[in-house]
Amino acid sequence: MAGGRSRRRKSPRASGNPEELWIYGRHAVNAALKNSNRMAKRVLFLRDNLGKDEPLPLEIDVKPEPVSRDQLENVLPLGAVHQGIAALMSALPTIAIEDICGNAKILPNALIIVLDRVSDPQNIGSIIRSAAVLGAMAVILQYRNAPQITGVIAKAASGGIERVPLVRVTNLSRAIDTLKKSKFWCIGLDSEAKGSIQQVKRPSHTALVLGAEGVGLRRLVRENCDELVRIEGSGAMTSLNVSNAAAIALYALRQIPNS
Questions:
Q1: What are the per-10-residue average pLDDT scores of the chain (259 residues)?
Q2: SS3 assignment, position 6
Q3: Terminal-residue alpha carbon distance, the chain
Q4: Residue 11 domain-assigned?
Q5: pTM of the prediction?
Q6: C-alpha span between 118 and 121 (Å, rounded)
Q7: Deepest of 48, 76, 124, 158, by most Cβ within 10 A of its Cβ?
Q8: Does residue 162 share a domain with residue 214?
Q9: How far is the C-alpha of 157 from the C-alpha of 226, rounded, in Å?
Q10: Are 219 and 201 in the same domain?
Q11: What is the 8-class DSSP label of residue 144?
């Protein structure tokens, strides 16, 4: 601007502690506050929204703070769709793949999602939300090829992150081996596969393996799957967004009786 300095917004402040996370959006915040595995450090809400939105849980660790829009947005990523509320929460406990496999042993029907190089936070959050709706017991992803859990993922998951454990592993092929040793049938989604997901003979314990958009599953991951299938469509296009593909595949698997 002529005659003056342009104003730039400062980068959002981090909590300064990797064990803390700002979560925002009504559904995500309420689900986090109700999660006994978390502790609330701060809860901020727009003073203009007082009495307009759904109430917070009655028993929370801290007193909610009414703040201005600038104060709220200063602690969040630029453009965050916060719906007038944010909470600084403790991180969820770490859970190992062996824990998931142990829990699955006592279940008559278990479904797990494995993500190979899926890196978009919105897609990951949407997949977690579908997992929560359609009854998957965990989402497995790598340390190296997936983002850290952020408010973006929590918001896209719309509370699902509090219900579906995220399990990080170093090596995805070894993780698939661990699942197979625990009697999981590992199904890889591949647009070039001959068989369709509707034709799967699904055992009681199933892992759905999805690759990143465009590149799909890596060779070793693909070869380590027990079966490769595609989503059979009838339209002119043959590819789907990975989060849409996950939702359709999860729903399809839920309709198949256990063999």
A1: 39 54 94 93 84 62 90 92 94 94 93 96 96 96 89 94 96 96 95 89 92 88 95 66 94 83
A2: coil
A3: 69
A4: no
A5: 0.87
A6: 9
A7: 124
A8: yes
A9: 29
A10: yes
A11: S
